Amino acid sequence: MGLTGIQIFKLLPKTNCGECGVPTCLAFAMNLASGKAELDSCPYVSDEAKEQLAEASAPPIRPVAVGAGVRSFKTGGETVMFRHEKTFYNPTGLAAMIASDVDSGSLDKKLKEWNALQYERVGLNLIPQLVALKDVNGDGAAFAATAKKIAEESEFGLVLMSDNVEALKAAVEACAFKRPILYAATAENAEEMGNLAKESGLPLAVKADKVDDLIALSDKLTGMGLKDLLLDSGSREMKQVFEDQVAIRRAALKTGNRSLGFPAITFPCEMASNLDMETVIAAMLIAKYAGIVVLSDFKGENLFPLLLERLNIFTDPQRPMTVTQGIYEINGPDENSPVLITTNFSLTYFIVSGEIEGSRVPSWLLIMDTEGLSVMTAWAAGKFAGDAVAIFVKKSGIADKVAKKRIIIPGYAASISGDMEEDLPDWEVIIGPRDASLIPKFLKDFVK
Ligand code: SF4
Q1: SS (HEC) of the chain
Q2: What is the pLDDT of residues 158-213, one digit of tens each?
Q3: Is the CB of 177 under 6 A from ligand 1?
Q4: Mutational test site, ligand 1, from 31, 42, 53, max ligand atoms within 8 Å of CB
C-alpha cells in the first residue's frame, strides 16, 4: 500500500523552504501521495526517508524495461483504469512466437519478414518489439543457439520460454545483452527461476493457474529481492483472461495490492486456432490491460490494425498530437513556389504534407500553432482566425522567401480570407480545396 499524505509528511524535512514548487512540506506530501509530484523535487530528503518514500511515489504498477536498442520498450507504469482519466503511458509490447527447433533458413526468412513490418504514421515508426522463443523439445543447446541468433542478427528483443532452467541459463549467457524476459517462474520452479533472474538482472514472468496463486508467487519472488516481474494469470480462455486482466489492474490501482502491481503478459497464440481470431483477442487485450501480447506470427494485415489500435489507446486523450510551428519545405521549393498554410494538429500536417509531396509541386507549407486543433475546430475555437493567421504569416518570415506574396488557405477556413486580406494588404489570399485529397490537382493547376 502507498503511504498517506500525513505519513509522507512525517518523513520530510519540515522546513517549508518551498524549493519543491509548493510553499510547504505538507502540500508537497499531499501532492506526492496523490501522484502529482515527484520525490526528486525535494533536494533535502534523507536517504533513509527516500527509501521509505520510494514506495509512496512509485507507480502502482511497476514499469519494467524490456529489450535493448531500437525495439526496447517499457511496459507497466500505468496509473489509471481508463485512459480518459489521465492517459496510458507504456504501449503494449507485441511479440511473435517461434519454436526452438526452427531451422536456420526459416528463422532468417521469418526475421526478415517481421523486420520489414514497420509503418510510418503521424511521424512515428510503428513496430512490433519481440520474438517469443519457445523451447519445444528440451534441446538446451539448440534453444540457446537460436536465442543467440535472434539477439545478434535482428533488432528484436526476446521472451525466452522454457521449463528447463539449465536451457534458460544457456540462453541467458547467449543473449543477456538484449535484456530478454525469462518465462516463467511457477510454483514448482520459483526458487531456481528467481535465482536465475536475480543473478542475471533480467525481468521474470510469473505463471500461476489463477490470480490468487499469482499473489503468493509474486510475494515469494519479491521476497527474494526481485523487482521486475510480469504476470501470467494462466487462463487461455478469452472471458477468463479478460476478467483476470481487469482484476489485476483493479487490485493494483484501487486497493494498492503491490503483489499484483506488475505488467501482464498474455498469449492469444495459445487461445485461438488461427491468426485472425488471435488478432481479435489481442485487440481486446491491448485495450484491457496487457503489458505484452504474444501472437503466433506477424502478418501485415493482422499487425497493422493492432499497431494502430495501440497508438490510439496509448495516446494522451487530453493532449492532441502536434507538430512544431514553422515553415516546412516540401519538394525543394524556391522563390516562385506556392505557399500553403494549415494547423499544427499532426494528423492534419501529415495528410496535407503527404498530398503536397505526392503532387511533386515544390511548395512552402506554413504550420501555425493552434494547440493541436484541426482546421475546422481551430477556426471554430477562434485559434485560426484571420487576424491571428495574418500575424503569424508576418512573423514567420515567409515573405523573405518568395517573390510573389500569395498564400493558399484551407477551403474549410474560407471565411477568414477577408480578415487576412485586411491585415495582409500586400498578399493575395487564395482559397484552397476543402479536402486534402484535392491538393495535388489544385497545386498542379495553380502552378501552370
Ligand atoms: Fe519541504 Fe523539501 Fe519542499 Fe522544502 S523542498 S518545502 S523541505 S518538501
Answers
A1: CCCCHHHHHHHCCCCCCCCCCCCCHHHHHHHHHCCCCCHHHCCCCCHHHHHHHHHHHCCCCCCEEECCHHHCEEECCCCCCCCCCCCCCCCCEEEEEEECCCCHHHHHHHHHHHHHCCEEECCEEECCCEEEEECCCCCHHHHHHHHHHHHHHCCCEEEEECCCHHHHHHHHHHHHHHCCEEEEECCCCHHHHHHHHHHHCCCEEEECCCHHHHHHHHHHHHHCCCCCEEEECCCCCHHHHHHHHHHHHHHHHHCCCHHHCCCEEECHHHCCCCHHHHHHHHHHHHHCCCCEEEECCCCHHHHHHHHHHHHHHCCCCCCCCECCCEEEEECCCCCCCCEEEEECEHHHHHHHHHHHHHHCCCEEEEEECCCCCCHHHHHHCCCCCHHHHHHHHHHHCHHHCCCCCEEEECHHHHHHHHHHHHHCCCCEEEECCCCHHHHHHHHHHHHC
A2: 999 999 999 999 999 999 999 999 999 999 999 999 999 999 999 999 999 999 99
A3: no
A4: 42
